[in-house]
Amino acid sequence: MQKHSMWSFRFSTASLVLIPAAVGINYIGKLIAGLLKLPLWLDSIGTILASMLAGPIIGALSGAINNIIYGLTVDPISFIYGITSIAIGLAAGVLFYKGWISSLSKAAAAGLIVGLVAAVVSTPINVSFWGGQTGNVWGDALFAVILAKTDSVWLASFLDELVVDVPDKLLVVLISYCIFRGLPQNIVQLYSNNKLETLD
């Protein structure tokens, strides 16, 4: 029952309204991280929140649309990483439905898993387009060290991505969990009811 509703393509009005809200949250987070030159992305809070409320499909759509808009308005590089955003939305949605984001400690564990997923998906993109680097100062410094010691672009690129993605997604999932817990119960119930209706 739960699995069927999790992958439903019957979008409710509430779910469709959630997408632009999630995109807005993602966009603002990414802008703040960029302006403050933080060693994190902070661009998937909306994606993960949408996945928790409305399921992995809505979360993945929110992430992909955010990358398209950011790519059109700020940085064209963002287009390519839409694949990573989709993976983040799907992973967070599945983890939530499996009960992995039901407490602070579980949310932290889920953040580590989502970070690992993001790093695995992003590494081939980084290698294909940027020689393995992420453009993040901290990650690229590690990339240079690992590459010099091992001569492995793939290992250096993966660790470059991992040291940024894991703390980023850990923080983002914890923030999303706290926002979710703070939402009025009638809003959470609205999405729960919609998910159940898709099974009728």
From TrEMBL:
Keywords: Membrane, Transmembrane, Transmembrane helix
Annotated TM spans: 6-28, 40-65, 77-97, 109-129
Annotated protein name in UniProt: ECF transporter S component
Lineage, top ranks: Bacteria, Bacillati, Bacillota, Bacilli, Bacillales
